[in-house]
Automatic annotation (TrEMBL):
UniProt key word Iron: yes
Single Gene Ontology MF annotation: iron-sulfur cluster binding
Keywords attached to this entry: Iron, Iron-sulfur, Metal-binding, Pyridoxal phosphate, Transferase
Organism of this sequence: Apibacter mensalis
Pfam family, one: Aminotran_5
Domain of life from the UniProt record: Bacteria
Protein name (Swiss-Prot/TrEMBL): cysteine desulfurase
Family: Belongs to the class-V pyridoxal-phosphate-dependent aminotransferase family. NifS/IscS subfamily.
Highest classification ranks of the organism: Bacteria, Pseudomonadati, Bacteroidota, Flavobacteriia, Flavobacteriales
Amino acid sequence: MKKIYLDSAASTIIDERVIEAMIQSMKEDFGNPSAIHSFGQESKSKIEMVRKNIAQWLHVNPNEIIFTSCGTESNNLIIRSCIENLHIKRIITSPLEHKSVLETTRDLKEKFPEIEIVFLPLKNKKGDLDISFLENLLEEKIPTLVSLMHSNNEIGNLTDIDSIAHLCKKYGALFHSDTVQTMAHYPLDFSKTPIDFASCSAHKFHGPKGIGMAFIRKSTGLKGIITGGTQERNLRAGTENVHGIVGLGKSFDFAMKELDERRKIIEDLKQYTIEHLSKNITGVLFNGHGTDFNKSNYTLLSILLPFPNTLIGFQLDMKGIAVSQGSACASGASKPSKTMLQLYTDQELKNTTTLRISFSHYNTKTEIDILINFLAEIQKNFANTNPAETD
């Protein structure tokens, strides 16, 4: 049975060229980058080459690229240090953020009860944030960190981080964006977008797991939260993951050089999926701005199926098809995700099932056909066994 992988928002297939580069690095770059001898300095040189290359793609200073283990660590480093070291008194975020942001702010509130946590309200069922409410808050001139993700990891809605960055700059607030779902999928230019902090994970763009990075604008004065060494500009102590960094660098470079080609393939697949789901699944709904490519991440599509099936992920997996029920962080849950509960009422979610389909340039239309045919079969079987609920 040929397996079909449609869960690239959770983690991507590693590019074979990246694997080859990492194997070579494992063989050659065994010296500790902090050592002064040639073996250590060769490892250090590889790290700095990657740092410089990524900085060029993002149009920032190489010293502003800090390697971490993943996006979650990057988010924790940024948010916690803003409270602990930069004397931020308020965090403005949204209820649709990744758990690494929501749980971190919740934990900080418990440790520092004097800080204020504000969640921006949603304007509509599409999940749009009320940016006018944000500006009203920023006018209060309280030392503030705004943390809003560039692309929602479950429904794919895009946030206009350029406008928000300029808004924060206008009122003297710091701006952090979780760019895990968009880094190396969109051409980000932080010389034009005055963002202060951003995060990413290599495994979202065909690189290895366990390696990520944080963009930390030098002017913010952010300090590290892991102590024990001077690595990563004193912002992240610990011996560097050299071959992981090499893998991140290669996957980032390939993704950016091939961005237009990959994007064309994926956008075509997403449009094909929307059209064929609409034709073959009666009553299917597309969550958020899923059908609007200007407002939604082209790499993923969240759908609401008009029948209940808590085992659908398992059934699809038995057919060799990998998708997510909601986001990977909430997979396996029988209840609707927090994101869905923000967009719909309990009654609207009754007798429904949410799926997240996420694409890469390795996918094909044939794979989409197989997925949709099986979903249509599930719907037909449900209708035959529950005729009263389909009237």
